[in-house]
Specification:
Chains A, B: InterPro entries: HTH_HxlR, WH-like_DNA-bd_sf, WH_DNA-bd_sf. Two copies of one chain form a homodimer. By secondary structure, chain A is an alpha+beta fold. Chain A contains seven helices and five strands; from the N terminus they run H-H-H-H-E-E-H-H-E-E-H-E. Chain A binds a DNA duplex through helix 3 and helix 4.
Chain lengths: ~180, ~180
DNA sequence: ACGTTCGGTTCGGTCATTGAACCGACATGT
DNA sequence: ACATGTCGGTTCAATGACCGAACCGAACGT
């Protein structure tokens, strides 16, 4: 393995002299952003990430460890504590929102799969993160996510999949 | 190889029922977002991407081919035509801006490496893409990028690296 | 005409990812 | 007490992706 605890110049985006390259060293690997997305959706436990994402558990172990080491997630105290987003992790919300917005516009012929509304006033949230009604920049914690027209009803009976089929406030734990 | 020209359900983020997973199928692989970033910076030619990113040329060939196949880039006509961002590609700018903003805030102790200003009125552009002075949402084509306090002066003498050390308007070709 | 650059392709070695099996600690049921 | 299941991982062999270097024909510079 390449990193974990040692020096923190992994891959070799290093020479790029660009903050995006640094950011991608942390969240640019396969599965990582999907793990962070699930954390925004309220997933906190190893087994829930594993079942919902269907990622190999060895990879999940490595990614969660890296995200904790980089300060994106933190471990809940206790023997079987979950993984929670830190401030640094919650600051990734604009990145995820922008990616979802792009995917909705160009990769979702039946329209958005998930809609994001401002919990305060109920207005739809624009692609750039502003409430269409009150104009405020809306944080993840004030965002309510509901299934959109492109949403496919889930087939499995997992707790996580089922929970995401109903309107939910972001960051609220699923269990 | 897994895709290229055939059906378009590569990897297996497929079951995720989320536009972000679809987006990551296109731009989530190693190097891809850095290639797109360079395209915003005005890079158009295979050899310039290759030199500036120091990516293996076989990988660059594959990534450029995939981005063209997905409609993010298009090929300039002619024998040695460059790679240009399409509308779909230019729509990725908010994603890159958000990533750069996050990296600047959490991975750049000496401050931002690149500053983004509104070409119209000269105001700094906020992390969410608005001009601090005039309040408008600024498109990439109206953005001027300059070196910031965290910028390290380049060592090499490549055309691309040298060009990025001076203020430049995004999407303007480097040569 | 000649060397150089461009835009790749091919190749072997290395590294990462995958799916499956395995594991101890803990909880639950009977 | 005992069995059975869940949780949070680790280990392993096989596959796939990536890397660096070499090679190649077509276009360009002079």
């Amino acid at each position: 393995m390449w990193n974990h605890g040692g020096m923190v110049l992994p891959r070799d985006y290093t020479r790029q002299n660009c903050s995006m390259a640094r950011a991608l060293e942390i969240v640019g690997e396969r599965w990582t952003l999907l793990i962070v997305r699930d954390a925004f959706f309220g997933v906190r436990r190893f087994s829930d990430f594993s079942r919902h994402l269907d990622v190999p558990r060895a990879v999940l172990t490595e990614r969660l460890g890296l995200l904790v080491a980089e300060g994106v997630l933190e471990r809940e105290p206790g023997p079987r504590g979950g993984y929670l987003l830190t401030d640094k992790g919650r600051a990734l919300w604009p990145v995820l929102r922008a990616l979802v917005g792009w995917g909705d516009e160009y990769c979702a012929p039946r329209g958005p799969r998930r809609l994001f509304d401002h919990a305060g006033c109920g207005g739809r949230i624009d692609p750039d993160g502003r409430c269409r009604d009150c104009g405020a920049a809306v944080a993840a914690a004030d965002t309510v996510m509901s299934p959109g027209p492109g949403f496919d009803p889930p087939v499995g009976d997992e707790v996580v999949t089922a929970a995401l089929a109903r309107p939910r406030r972001l960051l609220e734990p699923i269990r």
